Amino acid sequence: MKTAATSLAEQIRHIKEAKKFDIRSGALPTWCPGCGYFGIHQGLNACIQELGLAHHEVVTVSGIGCAGRYPFFTSNYGLHTVHGRTLPVAQGVKLANPDLTVYAVGGDGDGLAIGGGHFPHAARRNVNINYLMFDNSIYGLTKGQPSPSSPVGMKSKASPFGTLDKPLNATLMALTYGASFVARLFAGDPKGITEALIEGTQHEGFAFFHIYSTCLTFDKAYKTWAHLKQWVHPIPEDHDPADLRRAFDLVLGDDFSTGIIYRRE
């Protein structure tokens, strides 16, 4: 017969077992309250817990910007590198120790501007790492300048008359570069992030996760929570992620469908 003490001991054991794979550190994230990055952090943490990856088996590598602080908020190994060099360092970590599970995290500015030259080569080489691009279409840490994915007409202190440049489409770029796993996700859906990350982490090859988020501090008019919640929607149920042509058609025709866009074994 179970006693109250026995039941409590079991509960404590289950909690300890779950915490063994919890990558959150004691350092509280310094992101603004309501930032979508919290949802991404929750999604990745849940993925690692579901896969049962021990702390010493995981490395997170970041560049600069708001996403660059990510390794400080985790209890696994982490490297906070320099602007635009997230992918080269992540590839080096994986090549040095192939047994590690490597997550490269960075913003759209880090990955599409100064780091844009590394993106195609990591994808085409199909190095077995996981790249999470936190895309809020703005340079948030440096007070709101337009980024390579900012929409045409976006006004800021650095672009008072609105941006003129056509934004880059990171999902389309990943497909073009030959990435073997491509997913497009929404920071407001941590469960969807977790499910895609689990599949991508188990995928043998370069896995790219394009995650739409928002900068609620500096973007009050364009990629807001209200807009994103209206725009994002699941990919069609009949979509075949093994069909590259259909993946291109989907991305070219719909910028805000979320899910696994493409997967090649």
From TrEMBL:
What Gene Ontology terms for biological process does this UniProt record contain?
cellular respiration; small molecule metabolic process
Question: Is this entry keyworded Oxidoreductase?
Answer: yes
Q: Which CDD domains does this one have?
A: TPP_OGFOR
**GO MF term set:** oxidoreductase activity, acting on the aldehyde or oxo group of donors, iron-sulfur protein as acceptor; thiamine pyrophosphate binding
Top-level taxon in the UniProt lineage: Bacteria
Where the record annotates domain Pyruvate ferredoxin oxidoreductase beta subunit C-terminal, the positions are: 215-264
Ordered alphabetically, the record's keywords are: Oxidoreductase
Q: Among its keywords, does the record have Oxidoreductase?
A: yes
Matching entries from SUPFAM superfamilies are given as: Thiamin diphosphate-binding fold (THDP-binding)
* Thiamine pyrophosphate enzyme TPP-binding domain: residues covered: 72-211
Protein name (record):
2-oxoacid:ferredoxin oxidoreductase subunit beta
Organism this protein belongs to: Desulfomonile tiedjei
